[in-house]
Design brief:
Radius of gyration: 22 Å
Strand order of the largest sheet: 6-2-1-7-17-16
Helix content: 25-40%
Number of domains: 2
Mean pLDDT: 88
Number of strands: 17
Strand content: 15-25%
Distance between the termini: 23 Å
CATH class of the largest domain: Alpha Beta
Structural class: alpha+beta
Order of helices and strands: EHEEHHEEHEEHEEEEHHEEHEEHEEHHH
CATH architecture of the largest domain: 3-Layer(bba) Sandwich
Largest sheet: 6 strands, mixed
Length: 462
């Protein structure tokens, strides 16, 4: 049997390779590291997490990300198996020890007898004689491969900017000022209602912080000048430029948190930190992705009460992400229209987020394996979280395609991608926020039933 080639050893590539191998099809997994480094990776491990360590909400009843978690677990996801095994406290979110997580994924891939790992850079779209190929090179696709994709597709651009947040040593945080509490005391999958560290600011401190952000030296774009940002991961200083109150209504919002030293006095703004490793020795600054120069980061972030003596294990940075104008280039089986034996998976397709990337990788691995085995498989229905993502990638912005390559933007999974649902006959219509939660519960329940139906008909089962 001819093997499936998978290019890229990130979350999508590993998930695709694992899914295909578990279906009984041999796989050759190509990863360019360590021979060729990227601007954001620190190690040569497969499935290294280069930005946040959070897989976001694990609530499968009222949160679309939680629904996606549930679907991935239902389908035997390697990524979710490793995440569950290496979770760290994060309130209502699923966050992981990034090193333990990557090590677990790599060990599972290495132990799979049908997967061969080849450490080499693939510099162009492969020749026809490779046969079925999955390109899952992610947002850090090498320049050579990106140029090959451009030449094949006739596109003019594939890139946008992304940024990563700093990581702080726990023992350098001042707990005479900071305190531990999850927003609204929400208990997460690890059972911890005090998963976050909170650093409060009064109005004067917040104003000085914003002034410093606006005046600080930033990293220059240089050869990437003109490349747009992804709105879901804006640098904190860019958010500040959009208005002085933007941050306190975004990552620094003070709601759902009570300072135990001043329970009757609400903070004007709050900076949160989330555990980054299993030992609890490192915490990342939530929402603080940045392109500030390193010296400026140290100076300005130490203005935050509780972080005045902060020691940073990693400072934030800027890197270029790559994604396709997928509605123009891919069909709903994620095949490249110009060369159907090539499929794309993960963030390069225009989904944003770890679990979204893994989900597309898993499905593309199964679709490709099914084709090799002569048992063609359709993607999950669009009423599921995975199916809704595929629908967005392959046609959700079809009406905007003629506006050019920037009309299609990366997107996280959300209930707005799901087809509408009518409430059951006779159900009492709620008002206000409860009405929205009611709708989400119905969408989640429908997704569960429809995913189970698809998985039951799947050639490889669950």
């Amino acid at each position: 049997m001819k093997p499936i080639h998978v290019i890229g050893g990130g979350l999508a590539g590993c998930e695709a390779a694992f899914a295909a191998a578990r279906a009984g099809v041999p796989v050759i997994l190509h990863e360019m590291r360590p021979g060729r480094a990227t601007a954001a990776h620190r190690t040569s491990r497969l499935a290294e997490l280069v930005c946040s360590n959070s897989f976001r909400s694990d609530d499968s009843e009222t949160n679309a990300v939680g629904v996606l978690h549930r679907e991935l677990r239902r389908l035997g996801s390697l990524v979710m198996r490793a995440a569950d095994a290496h979770q760290v406290p994060a309130g209502g979110a699923l966050a992981v020890d990034r090193d333990g997580f990557a090590q677990a994924v790599e060990q599972a891939i290495a132990a799979e007898p049908l997967i061969e790992i080849v450490r080499e850079e693939v510099t162009g779209l492969p020749p026809e004689d490779w046969g079925p190929t999955i390109v899952a090179t992610g947002p850090l696709t090498s320049e050579a491969l990106a140029q090959s994709i451009l030449q094949t597709t006739g596109e003019t651009s594939l890139a946008f900017f992304d940024a990563i947040a700093p990581v702080v040593h726990f023992d350098s945080i001042d707990f005479d000022i900071a305190w531990r509490q999850s927003r609204y005391d929400k208990v997460g999958p690890s059972g911890d209602a005090e998963a976050y560290i909170n650093c409060p600011m009064n109005a004067e401190q917040y104003g000085a912080f914003i002034d410093a952000l606006l005046a600080a030296e930033k990293t220059e774009f240089k050869e990437f000048e003109g490349t747009p940002y992804f709105d879901g991961c804006l640098p904190i200083e860019v958010m500040a430029e959009r208005g002085r109150e933007t941050l306190r209504h975004g990552p620094m919002k003070p709601v759902g948190l009570t300072n135990p030293r001043a329970p009757d006095k609400k903070a004007y703004a709050i900076v949160q930190l989330r555990q980054d490793n299993a030992l609890g020795t490192l915490f990342n600054m939530v929402g603080f992705q940045t392109k500030l120069k390193y010296g400026e980061q140290s100076r300005i972030f130490r203005m935050i009460p509780g972080l005045q003596r902060a020691e940073f294990a990693r400072l934030g940075g800027l890197h270029r992400n790559t994604y396709l104008n997928s509605p123009r280039l891919l069909d709903n089986h994620m095949r490249l229209k110009a060369r159907p034996q090539i499929r794309f998976a993960g963030q390069i397709t225009g989904c944003e987020g770890y679990v979204e990337s893994a989900a597309i990788g898993l499905i593309v691995g199964r679709l490709t394996a099914a084709e090799v085995l002569g048992t063609p498989l359709d993607p999950p229905p669009s009423t599921t979280a995975i199916g809704a993502l595929i629908n967005h990638i392959s046609g959700g912005h079809i009406e905007l395609i003629d506006a050019g390559p920037r009309s299609f933007q990366p997107m996280n999974v959300n209930f707005g991608l799901f087809p509408p649902i009518a409430p059951p006959p006779g159900e009492k219509k709620l008002r206000g926020p409860e009405r929205g939660l009611q709708r989400k519960r119905h969408l989640s329940a429908r997704a569960r039933v429809d995913l189970d139906g698809w998985a039951g008909a799947d050639f490889s089962g669950s």
